[in-house]
Amino acid sequence: MRLLERARKEWFMVGIVVAIGAAKLEPSVGVNGGPLKPEITVSYIAVATIFFNSGLSLKTEELTSALVHLRLHLFIQIFTLAFFPAAIWLFLQLLSVTSINEWLLKGQLRYLIQHLEVFWALL
């Protein structure tokens, strides 16, 4: 009985051991393109579930007090999605007149363009 009580208390650790054991016995279930579709479930569903679960653990008072700081949230969003990509773009323009390899700059520009597209899509 003591072992069963301990297993109930340590349910997460038992679950990890069972998951590792199952993966060892049948690894084809978790590969890309397999039945679990980890390229989708891990990238989107698992991350969304973690953030949703974290949000549920917030107290209502903490959430409402955080919502009051609307200007701060707006500043952070503008800085992250507009100022920082614009600063990187300017930095890359400055680097483009130097002798740096142009393919390095093109890789960074592709990354910057993706972030700018996300920003404009949000507006």
In short:
The chain has 123 residues and is mainly alpha-helical.
> Per DSSP, what share of the residues sits in E-state strands of 2 or more residues?
under 5%
Helical proportion, percent range:
over 70%
* SS field, number of helical segments: 6
Shape category: flat
Q: What would you report as the Rg, rounded to the nearest angstrom?
A: 23 Å
Keywords: Membrane, Transmembrane, Transmembrane helix
Transmembrane segments: 12-29, 41-58, 70-92
Family: Belongs to the bile acid:sodium symporter (BASS) (TC 2.A.28) family.
Protein name: Solute carrier family 10 (sodium/bile acid cotransporter family), member 7
Structure, explained:
The chain is mainly alpha-helical. It folds into two domains: 1-57, no CATH class; 68-122. The chain contains six helices and no strands. The chain has helices at 2-9, 11-25, 38-56, 60-67, 70-96, 102-122. This is Solute carrier family 10 (sodium/bile acid cotransporter family), member 7. Belongs to the bile acid:sodium symporter (BASS) (TC 2.A.28) family. The chain crosses the membrane at residues 12-29, 41-58, 70-92. Pfam families: SBF_like. It comes from Mus musculus (Mouse).
Key structural traits:
123 residues; mainly alpha; 2 domains; 6 helices
Helix-strand layout with pairing:
Elements: H1 2-9, H2 11-25, H3 38-56, H4 60-67, H5 70-96, H6 102-122
